[in-house]
Predict the structure.
Amino acid sequence: MRSAKNSQILIAALGIAMLVAGCASPASGSPRATGPQGPTITVSARPLAHVGEVLVDSHGYALYMFVPDAQKQVTCAGLCAATWPPLKVPADATLAAGPGVRSALLGSDADPAGGRVVTYDGWPLYTYVADSAAGEDNGQAIEADGGLWYTIAPSGKVITTH
């Protein structure tokens, strides 16, 4: 009986030691310390003259999808990403749906260059370097870097007109 009690004490002591050393996690529901809150990446909706209501970044720049991404993964990398910079999600960031945007459609996908890219209804989102001011859609319905580029409506529908 004494050895059984010693074994229980030893197991309890090992469990506590593992928690303290970070080898095990506390019971679910226990509060966890988190670092300072990072930036918020907001995707909003804005009407543009040529295409109607589209997704825009926090600066009002149009966000585009790339047909070869096939609504599932980032395929624009390297030189492509230099022209079409992906909307990145820093590790400590929070995604937020601005006015007119469905939060259930927001997500992120792994970026081949590292980190994560914001997605909407599965489409990775990009800006376009030729859009020099908020409210422009110079990348709409053009073929470049191996595929077509389009804006996206807040419903998640790809806008193919220009």
The chain has one domain: 40-159. Residues 40-159 form one domain. The helical segments are 2-21, 79-83. The chain has two helices and eleven strands.
